[in-house]
Design a protein that fits this description.
The complex is a heterodimer of chains A (about 260) and B (about 250).
Chain A lengths: L24 H23 L4 E2 L4 E2 L36 H9 L2 H10 L30 H23 L5 H18 L2 H9 L8 H14 L2 H24 L9
Antiparallel strand pairs in A: 1-2
Helix pairs in contact in A: 1-3, 1-8, 2-4, 4-5, 5-8, 6-7
Chain B lengths: L2 E10 L4 E10 L5 H11 L19 E4 L2 E4 L13 E5 L6 E3 L2 E2 L2 H8 L19 H10 L7 H5 L1 H4 L11 H12 L8 H6 L11 H5 L6 H18 L1 H10 L3
Parallel strand pairs in B: 1-5
Antiparallel strand pairs in B: 1-2, 3-4, 3-5, 6-7
Helix pairs in contact in B: 3-6, 6-9, 9-10
The chains are: A mainly alpha (about 260), B alpha+beta (about 250).
């Protein structure tokens, strides 16, 4: 080590870190959590079945909006402007890349995967393994600055998911409705608590006093923003749970618990 | 209840040094700085340590305790078990002077690189008027005690000496944000934040916020809002167009 903590003028300590706590645990858990979601989401996105329960109007968020002739009858709430798709194209291919981009460029997820996947740094005051570092100053990571555009699309997708959840209520009330509703509420909370949203609604202002409505909006978003990390993980969980429930009901593995 | 604690303290200077073991008495209610002082008084009269207020407000006694950047005076001995070895080293990002004392002049250099408060033309000192709601954001950053723990823990300079020239560090990027958000500051600081103070190096891993003894939300309230302002200016054609069309300032 001749640079970083091993630089010639610094205290001569050979250890990469002197931390005695389990600093490696959070990055490990993050890696496992992200990996589990990526594996599940990839398999389900390409599976091409068990995404729609026609009887109760349940559509999994992984396939929404479903806009091609390949979609099951009834699953296309916004029509089928697209022709039949080859089997290897996920039916939710319109929204999925933007949702992936929204999460990849999210300020919380950036912290999470920079620390856990890229180890830059793995934990505070633990030396990273890389010889050089340019951060987000140049390509490809300078693209992270496009986060707000993914946020705008994510708002549209949240509107679509909300519509899906509302449409399902026209078929009666079951446990699936509750799951879809909880998922969509949390998706909104995660989307609105985004740092770019906080900036757009009022953060960019110099004088709050001249814009009382935007200041109020900024205050509310700031409150949610403090829970952005928790919402990021919770919504990964609710997305999987919602999709899993729809899949199990659609495949006939379980029957929906009907309330009304 | 007093007990003998096992301490490992880094002793040395810029040419060489090592961790040395000591057994020191600890009494109820004491903090790590008390133990370092007892060590000075009873065993190592030449141990160098920088300290002042003993109240977490002067920012002098920054060091690393069991590898974590902390204030010596705000770290209670009750957070360690009696059989635990407590390792105390100087901050590992700055050149060491001797024992626990480092040369923090890097921070003063970076402080000087941030242009000072620029009131609007025609407004003299004493005539500054602003609303609390407008100045509140900047006030959070004024809680900074300049302990430099955030500068010390930031991996951009901690792990990459070569970045020191181009990166101001979280404390001084926060200073830029403080002035940029100040209702009476008339200077444009957005472009300089990215081009001169190295905001783009920050990958928002939040260690600065984690170690701040004043619990300032450095990343969420200063660095990310500045990154968003930079995105407005440099990476968002729609905002750029809006600013041109509607002459927004």
């Amino acid at each position: 080590m001749t640079s970083g903590v091993g630089a010639p003028t610094r205290a001569k300590i050979t250890a990469r870190t002197l931390r005695t706590d389990r600093w490696w645990l959070p990055p490990l858990m993050t890696n496992l959590g992200l990996l589990a979601f990526v594996v599940y989401a990839t398999i389900r996105s390409f599976m091409g079945k068990w995404y729609w329960v026609g009887e109760y109007g349940y559509l999994t968020p992984f396939y929404s909006p479903c806009l091609s002739d390949s979609c099951l009858p009834g699953a296309s709430h916004f029509g089928t402007p697209l022709p039949e798709l080859p089997g290897w194209v996920p039916l939710g291919f319109i929204a999925l890349p933007f949702l992936l981009g929204f999460r990849l460029t999210c300020y919380y997820y950036r912290k999470a995967y920079y620390r856990s996947v890229w180890q830059s740094p793995p934990a505070c005051a633990v030396a990273e393994p890389h010889g050089s570092y340019s951060g987000e100053t140049r390509l490809p990571l300078v693209v992270q600055n496009a986060h707000r555009y993914f946020f705008y699309v994510a708002v549209l997708v949240s509107v679509v998911n909300t519509y899906d959840a509302v449409v399902a209520f026209t078929h009666g009330l079951g446990l699936g409705n509750v799951i879809l509703l909880v998922n969509v509420v949390l998706l909104w909370a995660y989307t609105v608590s985004c740092h770019s949203c906080r900036h757009v609604v009022g953060g960019r202002l110099k004088h709050f006093s001249k814009h009382p409505v935007r200041y109020r909006a900024w205050t509310l978003v700031s409150r949610l923003n403090a829970r952005h990390m928790q919402l990021a993980w919770t919504t990964l969980g609710t997305l999987v749970l919602t999709d899993l429930y729809v899949m199990l009901v659609a495949s006939g593995a379980i029957s929906d618990l009907r309330i009304i | 209840m007093a007990y003998e604690a096992k301490f490992r303290v880094w002793r040395g200077d810029d040419s060489d040094g090592e961790l040395r073991d000591y057994l020191v008495e600890v009494n109820e209610g004491e903090v790590v700085l008390d133990i370092i002082h007892r060590l000075q008084a009873t065993q190592t009269p030449d141990l160098a340590v920088r300290w002042n207020c003993k109240a977490g407000k002067c920012g002098s006694c920054s060091a690393e305790i069991n590898g974590r950047p902390r204030l010596l005076c705000m770290t209670r001995m009750s957070t360690f078990t009696e059989d635990e070895t407590v390792t105390v080293t100087p901050m590992r990002t700055f050149p060491v002077v001797r024992d626990l004392v480092t040369d923090v002049s890097f921070n003063y250099t970076k402080a000087r690189e941030v242009p000072s408060f620029a009131p609007p033309p025609g407004v003299a000192p004493g005539e500054y008027r602003m609303l609390q709601v407008d100045v509140e954001r900047s006030q959070e950053f004024r809680k900074c005690i300049e302990c430099f723990l955030c500068q010390n823990t930031c991996h951009v300079v901690r792990d990459h000496e070569e970045n020191k020239e181009n990166f101001a560090g979280p404390r001084y990027l926060m200073r830029v944000a403080e002035l940029e958000m100040h209702p009476l500051d008339s200077a444009d600081r957005v472009a300089a934040a990215q081009d001169e103070h190295g905001l783009g190096f920050c990958n928002i891993t939040k260690c600065c916020s984690e170690v701040c003894p004043e619990h300032i939300a450095i990343t969420d309230n200063a660095l990310i809002p500045m990154k968003e302002r930079v995105a407005d200016r440099k990476y968002d054609p729609i905002v750029w167009l809006g600013d041109k069309l509607f002459r927004r300032g």
